[in-house]
Amino acid sequence: MTEETPITTAQRLQPQLVDHFMHLIGTQRLSHAYLFNGMDGTGRQDLALTIALRLFCQNVTSAGFPCGQCAECRRIIAGDHPDVIRVVPDGQRIKVDQVRYLKAEFSKSAVEGNQKIFIVDQIERMTTGAANSLLKFIEEPVGNTVALLLTANKNLILPTILSRTQIVDLLPVAPKELAAALAEVGAAPSQQNLLATLTESVAAAQDLLAEDWLKNAQKSIEHWFTACCQGDERAFVRVQTDLLPLAINRDRQGILLDMIVQIWHDALRQQTGAVDPQTLTYPQVAQASQQIAQRLGVDRLVVVVTLTLATRGQLAGNLNFQAILEALTLQILAQIPRR
């Protein structure tokens, strides 16, 4: 099998957008700032790299695509071109030194020609101050520069940046294609719906499945959820005994919070009518989520779901993970009517 390149991956995942941007470059109508919005696995990095390749390619094909083989293309793919500036988070955040590097590069002209491109992935992981530092560049670009800002969730981006960039929503991975790919890497049917809400990247899904992490996390959250539904205060204890051991790093803490959102979203879905349990993210506790949906009613259930959604922002604000979950558990228990 031929190994995929950023160009072929982008064409496979986002064919219409690739054609669109190749046409914009060919007709010299490319804007200077874009925000690509798409979950992991949708090819946002590959699309951005394909644009960079096309801008610098020495042997553009007759169809208007970068060749991927010339010296300029090879340097870009290897991450060795001085006028293609790429930044990705170092851990949970885009760090201060990375922001300093970006700001310094913003003020410089191209090194080897008259074209320069910035690709900043997961821009939602920038601090507010760092994100604001982008505004001056976006508003007053130096020379012939293009900024491609990439995110998995545009709702986390500052409105001032949204209003100054052209927002491009990437096509999601087709559900059937994703389900088949997840099955191929060992995801059980009861895990596939949940995984599809957490990532569209098969590689990321494999990482979650490794060493039964997802299986154990799913089971622990089901036990915690069941205790919450019963108004059992031992749900609070389960945070420390069951959930904390799974929170091995900041990324996994975020995944656990997303998984908690999904189990309560299952209940909200069942509040609105009959739902096939096999379409839920937690089919094993379908009966429990249906019962709590009936007991709480829509208003209280919306309160609970809203509380779970707020936890991601709390984690991004560097609040302690255990404190976030314990506070959430107490708030949920306060919503459960006593029998």
TrEMBL record:
| InterPro entries, sorted | DNA_pol_HolB, DNA_Rep/Repair_Clamp_Loader, P-loop_NTPase
Keywords recorded for this protein, A-Z: Nucleotidyltransferase, Transferase
A Pfam family of this chain: DNA_pol3_delta2
SUPFAM superfamilies xrefs: P-loop containing nucleoside triphosphate hydrolases
The catalytic activity of this protein is classed by the Enzyme Commission as 2.7.7.7
- What's a GO biological-process term for it? DNA-templated DNA replication
Q: What class of enzyme is it?
A: transferase
Q: Which GO terms describe its molecular function?
A: 3'-5' exonuclease activity; DNA-directed DNA polymerase activity
Give the originating organism.
Levilactobacillus zymae
Quote the protein name from its UniProt record. Answer: DNA polymerase III delta prime subunit
